[in-house]
């Protein structure tokens, strides 16, 4: 049985899916805003690596995904499918599971 | 792995989501209207910080969100995703989870 | 953290929601119609205080709410979100949870 | 707190709801058709008292309710909201819970 | 409280509902096709007595029911509402619960 | 109560339903492809006997069923309604429960 | 009862279904990207063998499937129907269960 190797740069999400690299939340000790400690246990922040071409509506037209490559995003804690590639954590999300873009 | 810091002013909710700063209910001892004590345990009142551009309907058009920045809102007790930033409590809500604008 | 005070007259329900003041059922001992005793335990009758502008349909048009301010309404026992303001009981209902207008 | 009295003649169901007076099934000992004994425990037969104006469809038009005042109807055993008024049993049903008009 | 008597010939199903007289499966000892013994315990075969005018679609038009009076039908074992009238078994089915017309 | 006999050739499925004769999986000891032993316990392969005229869409038009009489089909293990006629096993499936045609 | 033999090359998925040959994840000890060990227990990677003609929308038109024969795909761990043919593992997936095309 032939094996398939997965390369991050070649992952092309389908439909309204978004491929996101999971980020660790930065803790700032002075000033600024930070994610609380307990957010580290299951990160909810990431950076968009690739996006799908969008969902097809009833007219056969695609609705483009609202986020773009490079966007930092907040996403639902329990959403999507976790994928570990080369030691890094990724997640394949539906656009609806992305809550907000955080620049 | 690169870390992402989140700044309240840069949070841009997607779709029909609304970014809300959770308020503590004010207790007035004289006259006026107030939220009962038990409402403090899990606040249901907040102020809109930013709003998404609205949901895309079947025609590919966006329906604008009904609330605007600065609105005080009542929202469902168990709705949305809680986020703690810089010691303050925020919640990312779908517009449908907002029950009413108050004052 | 700033507090928000809620005034009944400023509550503006969103979408097809309706803000209702809960009524106690009147018991008449002679003639007339009355709600049975057990209906008192969890009132299902109220008076409309304010109404939302209606739901947006797929064409981006609002469907006006069928009830109006001042209407006495019967509503589902377990529907909506209960709110206590100034010692009185209110409920925020979706229009679909209102069963009928009474007199 | 003001009380509200409910008068059967003033109940106006919303949407596709139908206000039905619950009937007791008649038992005929000779000839004819009758409902079996066990149907008495939870009546499924009633007479339409008032009807709503019908549901609003996606085009903003109302679809009139298929039954009319005075119709005898068969309805689902566990459907609707039971209301007791003046010693009589009523039920507020969605049109979809009405199975058939009888006679 | 007035009683209502139900006559089979006057039952008029609503929407896409179909009024069906339950049949006992015939057992043939020679040749032919027959329903197995265990099918007798809960009949799945019946004859259409009356049909509704069909469901209303989003355009306000009725889609006629696919079966007609007199059709022998196979229906889902657990579908519909059983009604016993004059010693006979009837069932009120949604058209979608009718699997096939037989013979 | 009149009995109804069912003849395979007269079964006419409604809507998008498909009447399928269940097949036993063939085991080949040499070369070729075969279904594993455990597939015999609950067959998932069959031959289409008759098909419905297709589902009616919102425009009142029928969408023809994608399979045709004589097609060998793979179907979901737990889908449909099993029917035993004359010693043979049949199943009434919705088209959506048919996974693939296997020539 | 006639038996049906299944040949991989003749499997034609219906609707938006996709017939996928399950791949074993390749483990690279040096450089490159690889799937972690625990991904081997239930593979989520495969190669598209055949695709259906796409789902029919409300207008009676087919929306073509977004993947094509030969595509390497990532799919949901618990999606689809597993089929073992000739010693190899296959899976029949709905297009919506395919998360991404890889390489």
- Overall radius of gyration of chain A: 15 Å
The CATH top-level class label of chain A:
Mainly Beta
- Let me know the number of strands of chain A: 11
Adjacency order of strands in the biggest sheet of chain A: 9-10-3-5-8-11
Average pLDDT over all residues of chain A? 78
> What is the domain total for the residues of chain A?
1
Family (chains A, B, C, D, E, F, G): Belongs to the GroES chaperonin family.
InterPro entries (chains A, B, C, D, E, F, G): Chaperonin_GroES, Chaperonin_GroES_sf, Chaprnonin_Cpn10_CS, GroES-like_sf
Subcellular location (chains A, B, C, D, E, F, G): Cytoplasm
Main location (chains A, B, C, D, E, F, G): cytoplasm
What's the structural blueprint in terms of helices and strands?
The structure is a homoheptamer of 103-residue chains.
Chain A: E1 3-4, E2 11-13, E3 17-22, E4 24-25, E5 45-51, E6 55-56, E7 62-63, E8 72-75, E9 81-85, E10 88-94, E11 98-102
Antiparallel strand pairs in A: 3-5, 3-10, 5-8, 6-7, 8-11, 9-10
């Amino acid at each position: 049985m032939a094996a398939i190797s997965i390369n991050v740069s070649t992952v092309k999400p389908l439909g309204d899916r978004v491929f996101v690299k999971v980020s660790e939340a930065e803790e700032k000790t002075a000033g600024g805003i930070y994610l609380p400690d307990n957010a580290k246990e299951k990160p909810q922040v990431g950076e968009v690596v690739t996006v799908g071409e969008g969902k097809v509506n009833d007219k056969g037209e695609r609705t483009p995904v609202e986020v773009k490559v490079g966007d930092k995003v907040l996403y639902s804690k329990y959403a999507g499918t976790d994928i570990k590639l080369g030691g890094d954590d990724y997640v394949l999300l539906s656009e609806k599971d992305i809550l907000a873009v955080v620049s």
